Amino acid sequence: MYSVLNTLNNGSVQSAVLNLGVPEHKGEFLEDLIGAPGACGAQINGDPQYFIDVYKAGIKAAKKDLASTVDYVASKLPIRLPREFIRNILARVEYGIYSPGNYREFVEIVRRYGGKE
Q1: Running DSSP on this structure, what letter comes out for residue 84?
Q2: Are 90 and 74 in contact (CB under 8 A)?
Q3: CA geometry: angle 24, 42, 59, nearest 5 deg
Q4: Taking phi first (over 0 means left), then psi (-120 to 50 degrees means alpha), and beta for anything else, what does residue 24 get?
Q5: Is the dihedral of CA 86, 45, 29, 12 positive or negative?
Q6: What confidence tens digit (pLDDT) does each residue in 53-89 have?
């Protein structure tokens, strides 16, 4: 199911870039290594209060009943993802609302290694 993680674990590759949703991973994640925001981000046009209220309600729901929140998120996604993957993201992510600050270094990394030539 998680072939990238499997190749890392069986020694077929020396390193792999893994996301917070990958189960049973104890090492560093891409988000940590490059200082990028965690699982998601949003650009808000206009008054941000509605977005903030919805975000906080989602956090509250996840903390109260993680299993039901995972089912809800899975039912709303446009693609199918394993529930374990969704649960890991909701359980591991550092919640917060903040400005991304200076993300120039992140943009440069993406440009350098993003495959666009």
Answers
A1: H
A2: no
A3: 55
A4: left
A5: positive
A6: 988 998 899 999 999 999 999 999 888 988 988 898 8
pLDDT digits (tens, 9 = 90+) for 83-103: 988 898 888 777 887 776 777
User: Both tokens of residue 111?
Assistant: 């440009």
C-alpha to C-alpha distance for 71 and 67, rounded to whole angstroms:
6
Amino acid at 45: N
How much is the pTM? 0.59
- Give whole-number Cα distances, 101 to 43, 47, 104, 109, 114, in Å: 13, 19, 9, 16, 22
Distance CA 86, CA 69 (A): 9
Question: What are the boundaries of each domain within the chain?
Answer: 3-113
Radius of gyration in angstroms for the set of CA atoms belonging to the chain, rounded to a whole number: 16
Write out the two tokens for 45: 């046009």
Note whether 38 and 105 are within 8 A (CB).
no
